[in-house]
Design brief:
This protein has 344 residues and is α+β, with helices and mostly antiparallel strands. The protein has two domains: 105 residues, Orthogonal Bundle (Hypothetical Oxidoreductase Yiak, Chain: A, domain 1), CATH 1.10.1530; 164 residues, Ribosomal Protein S8, Chain: A, domain 1 (2-Layer Sandwich). A seven-stranded mixed beta sheet has the order 2-3-4-11-5-6-7, with helices on both faces. It has a three-stranded antiparallel beta sheet with strand order 9-8-10. Helix 1 runs antiparallel to helix 2.
Length: 344
Amino acid sequence: MRVLREDALHLATTLLEQRGCRVVHAALQADVLVEAELTGHPSHGLQRLPRILQRIERGLIDPNSEGAASWSSSSYLRVDGLRGLGPVVAGAALTLLSARAATAGIAIAGIRNGNHLGMLSHYVAWLAERGQVGIALSTSEALVHPYGGTRAMLGTNPLAIAVPTAGRPMVVDLATGVVSMGKIHHHAANGLSIPLGWARDETGQPTTHAARATKGAIAPFGEAKGYALGMGLELLVAALAGSVMAPDIHGTLDADSVCNKGDVFIAIDIGSNPDLMARLSAYLDLVRASTPSDTGTPVAVPGDGAAARRADALLRGFQTSPQLWRDLNSFSLPQSSLSIGQAR
C-alpha cells in the first residue's frame, strides 16, 4: 500500500505524543523515520517506531531529554544523551556544533547514552544545507563478523559525509557491514530471503534465511577493506564518545536494555566561496555525464537515487506493508490515556 508523507507524520507524531513526547521532539523523531521511508530505506523507517514506543513505555527512553552538553575544549563537545531520543539529542548537539564551527572552523561532538539515530544522512545533510561539511559516525551491537571470522564482533558502524555544493549537497551514507541489520529485519518481517553472502546464521554458516541471519552475523562489505574501516570506526567512536565496544553494546535493536552505543559528529566550516561550490557541482555533473557501463542507466553520484525516490514518494506516497500500517494504528492509546500537549 502507498502512504502519504503527511499521513505517516501525523500517525507517528500522535503515537509519540501519546507517550509523553513534547510536540517538537515527536515531530523530529517522526521526520527522521518518515524521511527514511521517502528515500527508499524502510529498514530505518516506520518499522522502528514500535520499538521506540516500547522503549519509552519501559523507561528506557526519556522522551523529553535533550541531553547535557559541555565543551571540554574549544572545539570538542561532550554529550551525555540522558537516554533521550536519538534525533532529539543529536539535533541539540548539532545546533551547538554548527555555531562553534562557524567561528572555530571545526567542531566535534561525542555522544553517549543516547538512542538510535536512524539514517545518518539526515544529520550531515542538515549541516551541508548550512554551508558546512558534515561527518557522522555511529556504532551498534556486535552484528558484523571479522574478515575471515564467523562470529559477530563489530558493529555495522555507519559513516555519513555531506559536502555542500552549488546545488543539492553530495551525501554519502553507508554501513561497514555489507548490509544493515535493519534491512535484514525488514526482509524477515516481510518473509523475504536474503542474498547469499550477506550473513551467517547463529552456527556460523552462510544463510539466505533472513530470520536466521538476525541471530547470526553480517559480512563486512568489501571483505578485508570494509572490515578494516569498520574496526577503525569502532575504536574511533569509542575513543571520542567514551562508549563501550560492540560486544557490550545493547539497546538499538531491543526494548529491554539501556542504549549504550556511541555517536560522533564533525562540522567543518568551509566559508562562503561561490567559486568552490560551482567547481564541486561541475565535477559531480562531469561524473554524471561520463560513459555508463549500461547505456540505459546513466551514471549517478551518491544521493541521486535517494533524491529521485523522495521526489516520487512526495507525489505518490511511499510503499509500506499493510500489516505494518495496521500494527502502527493499533498502538494508538484510548482517548482517556492521551498525553498529547501535556509535555511540550
